[in-house]
Amino acid sequence: MKMYKSIIFLFFGLIVFTACEDALTVEPRDNRVTEAELFQDPATYRGIIAKAYAGLTVGGQASGDGDADISGIDGGFSNYLRIYWNMQELTTDEAIIAWNDGTIKDLHGHVWTDGNEFINAMFARVNYQIAVCNEFLELSTNAKLDEYNIPADVRADVANYRAEARFLRAYSYYHGMDLFGKMPFRLEGYDPTTLPEVRSRTELFEFIEAELLAIENDMVAPRMNEYGRADQAALWMVLAKIYLNAEVYTGTERNTDAITQLNKVINAGYTIPSVPYAYSFQADNDRNGAESEFIWTLNFDGLNTQTFGGTTYLTHAPVGGEMDPAEFGINGGWGGIRTTPQFVELFPGEENSADTRETFFTDEQEKSIADVGRFKDGYAIQKFKNVNVDGSAGTDTVGDFVDIDFPIFRLADAYLMYAEAVVRGGAGGDINTAQGYINELRERAYGDSNGNITAGQIDLSFILDERARELHWETHRRQDLIRFGQFTTSKVWEWKGNVQSGTTTPAFRNILPIPAQELNLNPNLQPQNPGY
User: Residue 2 sits in a domain of what CATH number?
Assistant: First the structure.
């Protein structure tokens, strides 16, 4: 069962969440139900934690991202996954966009400012998610459960929900730390009349690590929770992520700790499926065999999670030119996202590569991008398709919204992180094991052992390129390039630096600016991040 595909809108009719200075209040929509009556119903707790998950998948409280969570920007544009994807992918060699929506092109050009509305929306979305989680934790304390005479069997479920709320809060703080460095910091029990304190990147790292370790044993065991809900393995992956990037965040490497967490994930029973790589990004990827490697997913449904963000965005936006929308199970392409020549060149044979992870559409598309605003400049990528493996389309017969679940973490990522941590000198792993993991991925990609590598070929350059081939468009590239020292001052791709040939950019762009409006609202955020 996909937890919130069926109940995502059920709770919205009962209460309204109102954002104010990064805090939330929960109020009845009318006088028909009191807080006491509301929270005596066990379904209420499930409804609020569903909202915490739903905040990652939809942009508002009504179908099609209506009644948007974030003010000042369209709900579809500010969808968490969509806006996070833009930060992690449009800023890199993996993606470029044709549209003239506000300052969207500034992301790929590395010319964004502290007034960029998409960066502002990302900052707001992270804080909104944290506030939702804080609100749930406020409303589900033991004192509250006692007050409402909640029975023991329901309390067990609420305990699981509380652990997940703390995990989801830490997950969003991780994004804030990665993107912005410092963040406003509030936990449950804060005083809403005071401005939130601000924690530095190192302080956020320490909080996230401590919080995840504190709740590790309270999380449901790996592969034992409802599909789409986080479990211990998702927690281990976030720990592994912060440890692998620890030198960027704190100045101290933690590769051994990364391997410790990755070994837990790898030994938790996930498997690389025998089905083709493409199955992982199709409408039925929750049941076509690909799901055996999914550690945590954001779930989408063409009928019940109708958003213009998420995988709807990742399916519609890359379709244009001579591409047939019907092949993608949609009613029309948006003609926006393509990729750069430098990403194409990571595949041996480029568009004719034997590596099936290469999905370039080249018919009347130019490899080089002379005009960013012209969809046919740049090869298109055909990764996400709203079709089932039997060829049938997704559940939305109109073709607007898709069923494709987005894998936040999958085993392939854990394998490649393990290999990288070993190469970087971490203890607890070995290069021959890493070779076996990588060849498992490459045998799926090539269909045989022709793409296999030796242990001697595994160096940091190979790993960075292999991560792009395996994980492109899955929200990893910006973070990877920064960790490898290639996001700004080293690697060049077309239109980086806002010139066609590409150029290096100042290192301060490794961190995004704090939105100017947030600096004005909360002086504790001063000074602005360097360079802006």
Answer: 1.25.40.390
